[in-house]
Amino acid sequence: MNKFDRIYELHKVLTSARHPVSKKSLQESLECSSATIDRIIEYYRLYLDAPIEYNREYNGYYHNTINGLKYELPGLWFNTSELFALFTMHHLLENLEPGLFTESIGPLKKRIQKILAEQNLNYDHVTERVRLLSMAAR
Questions:
Q1: Tens digits of per-residue pLDDT, 98-118?
Q2: How many CB atoms lie within 10 A of CB 93?
Q3: Is the pTM of this model over 0.90?
Q4: What is the DSSP string of 17-76?
């Protein structure tokens, strides 16, 4: 797992836990060492402003909900399957013939291109490697 995946997994583990999560459990979930857990938590606190705290009584980490508000990661975060779904949707929109929704679809296509670019996925490069076949066109 890279740093992004570990942060995403840490967030998922902490938000789904009812009680503070021990470092040992985090090591198993994130598949890394104790030192890496410390670095990921530090990054999570400093750069993403996560309200993560340590509870001595339970010997674990938790999200400190401020005013009952749940902490969410900033921006859009996608895993691999979601990115490929976006790629597929972009491909289908590119091949859509002009119709009623042409004006409405334009901004969506631009947004998908931007999201793919932010994830270092060049649309032209990916289309050389992936081929989507149409099924039973009318």
A1: 766 667 777 777 777 777 677
A2: 14
A3: no
A4: -SSPBPHHHHHHHHT--HHHHHHHHHHHHHTT---EEEETTTTEEEE--BTTBPP--SS-
Token couple for 62:
């938790």
Does residue 136 come out as left (phi exceeding 0), alpha (psi in the -120 to 50 range) or beta? left
Of 28, 93, 15, the residue nearest 61 (C-alpha): 15
Exposure pattern of 27-64 as b/e (b: 16+ CB <10 Å)?
Answer: eebbebeeebbeebbeebeeeeebebeeeeeeebbbbe
Using one digit for the tens of pLDDT, what is the confidence trace for 62-96? 988 777 778 887 766 666 777 777 777 777 777 77
| C-beta separation of 115 from 86 below 8 A | yes
Look up residue 138 and give its amino acid.
R
For the chain, the residue count is 138
User: At 101, is the secondary structure helix, strand, or coil?
Assistant: coil
Q: What is the pLDDT of residue 138?
A: 60
Task: Find the helix or strand (DSSP H, E) in which 128 lies.
Answer: helix 123-129
